[in-house]
Amino acid sequence: MKRIVNLMTALAISSTALSQNAVDVHCHDILPDFVKALDVHGAALDETFPLPAWDVNDHIAFMDSAGIKTSVLSMPAPQPYFGNAEECRDIIRRYNEQTAEICRQHPDRFRFVAALPLPDVDLAMEEAAYALDNLGAIGVKLATNSRGQYLGDESLDPLMAMLNERNAVVIIHPHKPVPVNDSIIATAPLAIYEYPAETTRAVINMIARNVPARYPNIKWVIPHCGSFLPLAIPRMKAVLPAMTAKGLMQPVDFDANLTSFYYDLAGAPSVEAIESMLTITTPDHIMYGSDYPYQPTQVLVAGKRRLEEAIAESQRLSQYKEMFFAGNASKLFNLPYQQPVKAVENIDSMLVRISEIDVFPEYLDEYMKAALTVGANSVANEEGVVCIYPMVQKRDDCKVRILEIYRDMDAYRHHITTPWFQTYKQGTLHMVKNLDLVDMCPMNPSDMPNIFRKMQYGHDR
Fold first, then answer.
1. How far, CA to CA in Å, does 296 sit from each of 175, 194, 274, 301, 302?
2. Any idea what the Cα angle at residue 174 is, between residues 170 and 176, rounded to 5°?
3. What CA–CA distance (Å, rounded) separates 323 from 329?
4. Are 364 and 397 in contact (CB under 8 A)?
5. Which of 167, 184, 166, 177 is nearest to 200 (CA)?
6. Is residue 227 pLDDT above 50, yes or no?
7. Cα separation, 433 vs 57, whole angstroms
8. What single DSSP character describes residue 347?
9. What domain of life does the UniProt record list for this protein's source (predicted)?
């Protein structure tokens, strides 16, 4: 019996696991050595507000309370360059190595993108190779500008070529614009206006030089709900013909540029903000971000729950909820991901069946392996398959019972034509002593949506 239980564990999906499925692509670890390096140069307030305290255990506690399975760490602003490229390299090397160690100590909770010692491009390329090849970084973080060297600058082209060869993911983060009007940011700190404006400025600069189009293997994560890009890109498209006609700008391939952009939901996310983002991107390019630890834990947790509820209540966006919070980021960063139980829209049309199967003892292990394989492939690859859940009787291992739920009869008809089902059927005929397919009807159909909602979102839903 124990060997069967171990096999069955691979298919078990609990509500707790699903509620902890979110991936956070916008958060920071603020390490003591980094803070000390800033203090030496009196740069702790370069970004017009103090760096918050950070502790790995506090971060994990936040993740647990917010339902976040994995966080992708990145270095906060400011860029630790103070005129000495070697010093900047050393500060960033320590940060990358220390963050990599945090990820090694907590492999199920953290990944990181490496900081680079710009504006020195040669050192940045060396650090990118070291972090990606030796430290386990899953991408790099680039500032909108590194002490005045903006994304899109021609001097960065060698770095772009290297990242393109490696199919790298780049997380962008706004830094203090250079130059900046100090009297304005004294009134309204950077986070209020300049950060989204700065992100927009840097991305538009990249688009104007066709950087994403020229380096199409790089995937770019743009912060803070796309910043002002949903407004800026249509304006750029409208103005560009006049600019190119006068020789003031080069032609821009908007489709080729925009296809490489992904967007996080850090900042002040809302259904309205997402709808605006969808004017320039598609649902598979939007990902959750918390901006931890720049807001108190309780504020971030409450904000995430509000956003989840608002998306779930949106007729248009509800179908993308799991993609926004887990699926898209898992795919982009190649993270382990467990698909949620699929929702069922029309309970009355469902086909619910219990397959009662008696297996010859000598084939039991082989049969269970085949049953688990076809179940996993069907749930993962067929939209109409809600559940295929093999079970065995405790009193008799050879009596297998499979709970099968299909969205409707058409979904079942499609299922039995799939190559994985045909392989299962033909490969197990000789293993089965008896087979009885028992179609079922729910005694309380009105409660079925609540059951599936609870399975998908956990008790908090």
1. 21, 22, 23, 9, 10
2. 140
3. 8
4. yes
5. 177
6. yes
7. 54
8. G
9. Bacteria
269 neighbors 307 (Cβ within 8 angstroms): yes
Q: Any idea how long the chain is? A: 461
If phi > 0 it is left, if psi is from -120 to 50 it is alpha, else beta; for residue 267 that is left
Question: Positive or negative CA dihedral for 148, 154, 156, 160?
Answer: positive
- The tokens describing 137, both together, are 């970084």
Spatial separation of the C-alpha atoms in residues 88 and 115, rounded to whole Å: 11
Strands of 286-287's sheet in order across: 140-143, 169-173, 219-222, 261-264, 286-287
Which residues share a beta bridge with 440?
Answer: 352
pLDDT for the residue 21: 86
CA–CA separation, 172 and 263 (whole Å):
10
Question: CA 371 to CA 390: how far, in whole Å?
Answer: 7
Q: Which residue has the higher pLDDT, 243 or 193?
A: 243
User: pTM for the full model?
Assistant: 0.72
* Structural domains in the chain, sorted by start: 22-332 (3.20.20.140), 347-457 (3.30.70.100)
> What pLDDT was estimated at residue 461?
39
Closest residue by Cα to residue 114 from 104, 122, 125: 125
Q: What is the DSSP string of 404-456?
A: EEESSHHHHHHHTTSHHHHHHHHHHGGGEEEEEEEEE--S-GGGHHHHHHHHH
Q: Is 48 exposed, middle or buried (0-12, 13-18, 19+ CB in 10 A)?
A: middle
Question: pLDDT category, 295, cuts 50, 70, 90?
Answer: very high
Q: Measured between alpha carbons, how far is 229 from 280 in angstroms, rounded to an integer?
A: 8
Q: Going by DSSP bridges, is the β-strand pair 385-393/432-440 parallel, antiparallel, or unpaired?
A: unpaired
**From CA 123, how far away is CA 88, in angstroms rounded?**
9
Cβ–Cβ under 8 Å, residues 233 and 193: no
What are the distances in angstroms from CA 162 to CA 180, 209, 393, 418?
31, 17, 56, 41
Candidate ranges 21-35, 387-401, 428-442; pick with highest mean pLDDT? 21-35
Does residue 407 have a pLDDT over 90?
no
Radius of gyration over alpha carbons of the chain, in Å?
Answer: 26
Q: Tell me: cis bond preceding 78? Omega within 30 of 0 counts.
A: yes
Name the residue with higher pLDDT: 172 or 385. Answer: 172
C-alpha distances in angstroms, 77 versus 333, 390, 396? 23, 51, 61
**Torsion of Cα atoms, 372 then 375 then 381 then 386, to 10°:** -150
Pick the closest to residue 77 from 42, 34, 111 (CA basis): 34
